[in-house]
Amino acid sequence: MKRILITGAAGFLGSHLSDRFIKEGYYVIGMDNLITGDLKNIEHLFKLKNFEFYHHDVTKFVNIPGQLDYILHFASPASPIDYLKIPIQTLKVGSLGTHNLLGLARVKKARILIASTSEVYGDPLVHPQTEDYYGNVNTIGPRGVYDEAKRFQESITMAYHTFHGVETRIVRIFNTYGPRMRLNDGRVIPAFIGQALRGEDLTIFGDGSQTRSFCYVDDQVEGIYRLLHSDYPYPVNIGNPDEISIKDFAEEIIKLTGTSQKVVYHPLPVNDPLQRQPDISKAKALLDWEPRVKRAEGMKITYEYFKSLSSEELMKEEH
Ligand code: NAD
Ligand code: UDP
């Protein structure tokens, strides 16, 4: 049985990846310090024989007894309000955490895939974003702690590949959504749906002309699964190119939820990227991958998930 370590396993993407690798017959070792994740996301896995969990901070030395074939490094705060609240931890998990996991991969002769992000492109001047675009990041801006941690993460990963021959994969994930996102993590999809469910107005930041391209989680997981099993060590964009302005997206949410609330405008956060759309030619050519789930379908499933939460969870303030 192949053994895979998934860091950030109690988070949104890590929990879906854990499910997928369990389904494929792997022995899954989840690791998480629960700083933004929740054990609820993986509680259904605890009863399985081929799952175990380590409550551990990956910025501290990481060791796993026995054979290890693959590592997926997904531990990191991922939403702007999270990484603004815990900036140093964000920098540390991308740098020290990645260093620890690359060291583990080297010792175990495991293949490692690291979760990078479209944020390495910053506020992009090239549109749509191709992997060969170097990006436009403000190192000292509020988002710099996340963006630069991820850029460093890519560099050290390539260095381990080049100098130590470690088998590495780098996925640049574009905005992904679905069940198990945290309702109060500040990202636009939980924010808008939470507001609609609580009967609050939807908060658009800026004039709403900024764009994003939202990928349903199952498509993202499929892309990551294929990339891990490919032989390509350079970064690959995985995301859905279906681009929409935040203003139009708010209208879609109003229709989906049937809320009678209106939209209200708040200032645009500093360095909030004005446009974002993945060029996925590389993923198509290398992995024969493209997203299958349309936004209308994915958003319906996501809305059902948020509706199923208790009213206590719905009203919970962000910690
Ligand atoms: P998430 O916050 O739901 O999950 C992250 C998990 O990592 C959490 O469970 C958290 O507790 C854990 N974690 C954080 N620091 C840790 C540490 N030092 N040690 C151990 N565990 C730690 O976020 P997510 O959306 O699932 O994102 C997962 C990964 O994917 C992140 O690396 C993120 O940067 C990347 N990513 C996500 C998106 C997206 O749209 N969801 C986009 C781009 C990149
Ligand atoms: N956004 C918004 N209202 C909110 C939350 C977010 O208008 O209540 C905007 C945000 O400014 C950004 C876009 O929605 O332009 C996507 O934000 P998110 O935090 O989901 O992702 P990211 O900015 O990291 O792509």
UniProtKB/TrEMBL annotation:
Residue ranges annotated for the NAD(P)-binding domain, each copy included: 5-300
Any Gene Ontology biological process: D-xylose metabolic process
Keywords: Decarboxylase, Glycoprotein, Golgi apparatus, Lyase, Membrane, NAD, Signal-anchor, Transmembrane, Transmembrane helix
Named cofactor requirement(s): NAD(+)
Keyword Cytoplasm recorded: no
SUPFAM superfamilies on file: NAD(P)-binding Rossmann-fold domains
Pathway: Nucleotide-sugar biosynthesis; UDP-alpha-D-xylose biosynthesis; UDP-alpha-D-xylose from UDP-alpha-D-glucuronate: step 1/1
GO annotations of cellular component type: cytoplasm
Record-level Gene Ontology MF annotations: NAD+ binding; UDP-glucuronate decarboxylase activity
EC number: 4.1.1.35
Domain of life: Bacteria
Localisation per UniProt entry: Golgi apparatus, Golgi stack membrane
Gene3D superfamilies: NAD(P)-binding Rossmann-like Domain (3.40.50.720)
Primary localization class, coarse: Golgi
Membrane topology: Single-pass type II membrane protein
UniProt-listed Pfam families: GDP_Man_Dehyd
Family to which this protein belongs: Belongs to the NAD(P)-dependent epimerase/dehydratase family. UDP-glucuronic acid decarboxylase subfamily.
Protein name: UDP-glucuronate decarboxylase
Species this protein is from: Flavobacterium cyanobacteriorum
